[in-house]
Each structure stands twice: as C-alpha cells, then as structure tokens.
Amino acid sequence: MPLNEGDPVVIWVDPKRIYLVKLIQNKVFSTDKGYIDLGKLIGLEYGSEILLSTGIKAYLLKPTPIDLYRGLKRLSQVLYPKDIGYIIYSSGVQPGSTIVEAGTGSGFLTLSLAYFLGNSTKIVTYDVREDMQDIAKRNASYLGLSDRIIFKLKDIREGIEEVNVDAIFLDMPDPWNAMETVRKALKPSGSLIIFVPTVNQIEKVIPSLSDFVDVHAEELIIREYQMKENAVRPRNIGVIHTGYIIRGRKRIKVS
Ligand SMILES: C[S@@+](CC[C@H](N)C(=O)[O-])C[C@H]1O[C@@H](n2cnc3c(N)ncnc32)[C@H](O)[C@@H]1O
C-alpha cells in the first residue's frame, strides 16, 4: 500500500540510527549520515530501500509498538516494554476490563494498555503532578489514543473513585500507602501489580499484601547480543536494571 502524507514511518539507517517521523510535504529530515526530503517518500511502500543525500542506504519500516515507544516524550522514569508485556500478560486484563493506574508519569504503561486493549477498555490513570499528565496527554495525542484514557489529577492514596476494578497498577514511590484504597476498589480475584525499582521497596510492600494470594516478586532481564560476525556475544551497553514486579490477587474471606 502506498504511503500517504501524515503516515508514520521508521527510517532505519543502521542499529544506532532509527528515526520515527511522519511524512510531510516539503519537510527535510536530517541525520548525521545525510538528509532526505520526507515529501518524496509519499507514495513509496513500507519496506522500501531509500538513499540519503550522501548516497547511504536506509529503509522505510512500519512502526511497531517498540518504535512508537522510542518516539515518546519522557519526564519521569518509564516502564520498559519487557516489563509492560509481562504486566499485561500476568494481570489478566483484556478488552472491556476496568483498569486503574498510578502514577501516570510519562504515560508509557497507560498508552501501552490503551494501544493493546482497544477502546472498550476503561483505563483510569491518577497522578499528583500536572506536568507529568501534560506530557502523557501529549504522548497520547501523538499516538491518537487520547479518547481511550481518563486522566485524574489526584493522589491515589486518598481514594479511588472507581469500583469493581479488574486490575490496579501502581508505579509510585510508596505503593504500601495506597493499599487501603486499592483493597476497596479492586474486585475479588482482581490483580494488583506494583512496580518498584529497589529491593528496599519490595520489603516495605510485603506486609501490606495480607489481603492478597498468589503473590510474587519478579524481575525480568533482557540481554541483547551484538550481531557481529565472529564476535556474537552479549552487548556491553544497555539497560541493566529497570525494577521489580510484585503481583497478587485479591482474596475474600468466606465465613
Ligand atoms: C515513575 S513515574 C510512573 C511512570 C509510568 N508508569 C510510565 O510508564 O510512564 C511515577 C509517577 O507517580 C506519581 N505519583 C507519586 N505519588 C503518587 C500518588 N500518591 N498518587 C498518584 N500519583 C503519584 C509521580 O508524580 C510520577 O509521575
């Protein structure tokens, strides 16, 4: 299918030069390896080989969620795709679920939920900082996902307005202080997923999880390999540590 004006594309030059752009008439995009007139790419197809002004080859690729993720603005520490994928998988959320999250931060988890779960899902995200939610709103608008998310500028520790919630995700410094409101809002068997960057925080969370079963604390490690002939081995730079995922299911007592 030929590309139209406004379509997002990845311009892949080499593993260190991967750019996410929108095709716009009369707009030049520059890299340290040469420039390209974006208007001249309209009408080509995803997968096409192109030449930068210097004659260096590049490729037009259709953006995947990982490419979209790289193009978003960040004001906070953000969740990484490896953790987001596991959070979605292990929480049991699906299209139509009601989900509550705090804090919004730059919106990376929020937007991933909106992207994968569609517009039948109710995604409510709380944050105490307006500047954070402004960035997340900008990112949501960039991806065309704004209508799938409800932003609340509120402290989740002071109350969750939603009830019968399928899953609650907490990525904030003191999740243990939100547990009272979480317990009230989450439906029985609903998933609580907490993300914290330090082991000290895991230790503080544990005593607050007495109303949960199937509790786990996990870390996901991803190791990329360099693809050099005769030197295939783990790369020596990359994201070494993101954080820990603590998850559990709400239980109810039957007397
Ligand atoms: C690390 S960021 C979240 C990043 C987000 N998960 C992402 O992927 O972009 C933590 C956020 O929690 C917010 N926060 C801290 N305490 C909060 C609270 N009590 N209620 C709501 N948000 C809170 C902070 O303002 C900050 O934006």
UniProtKB/TrEMBL annotation:
Gene3D superfamilies, sorted: 3.10.330.20, Vaccinia Virus protein VP39
tRNA processing found in the keyword field: yes
GO terms assigned for molecular function: tRNA (adenine(58)-N1)-methyltransferase activity
Residues reported to bind S-adenosyl-L-methionine: S106, G107, F108, L109, D127, D155, D171
Domain tRNA (adenine(58)-N(1))-methyltransferase catalytic subunit TRM61 C-terminal: 58-236
InterPro entries per the UniProt record, alphabetical: SAM-dependent_MTases_sf (IPR029063), TRM61_C (IPR049470), tRNA_MeTrfase_Gcd14 (IPR014816)
SUPFAM superfamilies xref list: S-adenosyl-L-methionine-dependent methyltransferases (SSF53335)
Keywords, ordered alphabetically: Methyltransferase, S-adenosyl-L-methionine, Transferase, tRNA processing
Pfam families noted in UniProt: GCD14 (PF08704)
GO terms for biological process, alphabetical: tRNA methylation
One GO cellular component term noted in the UniProt record for this chain: tRNA (m1A) methyltransferase complex
PANTHER family: TRNA (ADENINE(58)-N(1))-METHYLTRANSFERASE, TRNA (ADENINE(58)-N(1))-METHYLTRANSFERASE, MITOCHONDRIAL
Protein name, as recorded: tRNA (adenine(58)-N(1))-methyltransferase catalytic subunit TRM61 C-terminal domain-containing protein
Organism: Sulfolobus acidocaldarius Ron12/I
